[in-house]
Amino acid sequence: MGGPKTDERRGDVKAGDVSPVERLHVLVATDMAATDRLIHTRMTSGVALIPDLARHLIDSGGKRLRPMLTLAAAQAGGYAGDHHVKLAASVEFIHTATLLHDDVVDESALRRGKVSANLMWGNKPSVLVGDFLFSRAFQLMVETDNLAVLDILAGASAVIAEGEVMQLKSTNTLAVTEDHYLKVVSSKTAALFAAAAHSGALLTGQGEDFVTGMRAYGENLGIAFQLVDDALDYSGRQALMGKTVGDDFREAKMTLPIILAHARSRDSDKPFWKRVIETGNQTESDLDRAITLIEQTGAMQETMSRARAYADAAKAALKVLPASDIRDALADIADFCVERAY
């Protein structure tokens, strides 16, 4: 890639015009290139539909943040082997598989600005290719011959599935509590962030403080990331980023902006929320009204304030790392995660 240069596995990269995610990519560039090669090698199959469908999503412009956390944790801890590349590829396969399954469940038409795989190939192929990628992920885990990292990533896969089911059961109901919502976020999103950083750190043989610190960083970053995503769904900033506004609203998902807005709304606004969320009977102007109520009740500001608190907790967890460009980039990513909403 263009921009700052790096020597082999790491280089001296200074903050500039590039985003913190791009800076981290440069710092782990050689390992990330090896991960990408492994991803493309392992998603091949004699069944042509499998690589075609998988490649549609894997090559659609995702930032590869989760596998980069695995590589960064391993590098920050001085790991000198190559198992971190297998774990990073495994993390990306798990992430891609969950996206394929998510789009089927949500009946999504777009993913990363492209027509979703389920719309192009159908639901059944999308689910089955997702299953194939999960299998590939577990093959890669086994190849590390490390039961501890296998336990971490296998456990995360189960937790993610639980989170999806919890979210499915909390759709179309205003009874969802903040605690339940955070459990969904922790399971559905933060679990893989945490496992990505945790597994990479565990390879290094560093002490417990380093390993638990990296896991805490990933978990808090994942929660902040999802809170911001949920806020952006009701923000004009989403449209500027080329993404559709109001997808969660149209799917009647109870995310934190809605939970807070409903709880703080006047009694005269309660029937509106009941109609658009619980009955799903929405009109063209309902999204604008929902956005207005979210702003008026302070729900947007509160959601972003909580995201900032989790981002700060992620940064605090990095105190276990020695001063380095990697640590600086990880800290800046936590800030960037929140600042992208403004």
Structure characterization notes:
The chain has 17 helices and two strands. It has a two-stranded antiparallel sheet. 70% of the residues lie in helices and 1% in strands. Strand 1 and strand 2 form a beta hairpin. The chain has a single domain (20-339), classed as Farnesyl Diphosphate Synthase. The protein starts with 19 loop residues before the first helix and ends with a helix. With 342 residues, it is mainly α.
Layout of strands and helices, then pairs:
Elements: H1 20-27, H2 29-42, H3 49-58, H4 65-76, H5 83-106, E1 110-111, E2 114-115, H6 117-121, H7 123-143, H8 147-169, H9 178-202, H10 208-232, H11 236-240, H12 247-250, H13 256-264, H14 270-279, H15 286-296, H16 299-317, H17 325-339
Antiparallel strand pairs: 1-2
Helix pairs in contact: 1-17, 2-5, 3-7, 4-5, 4-9, 5-7, 5-8, 5-9, 8-9, 9-10, 10-16, 13-15, 13-16, 16-17
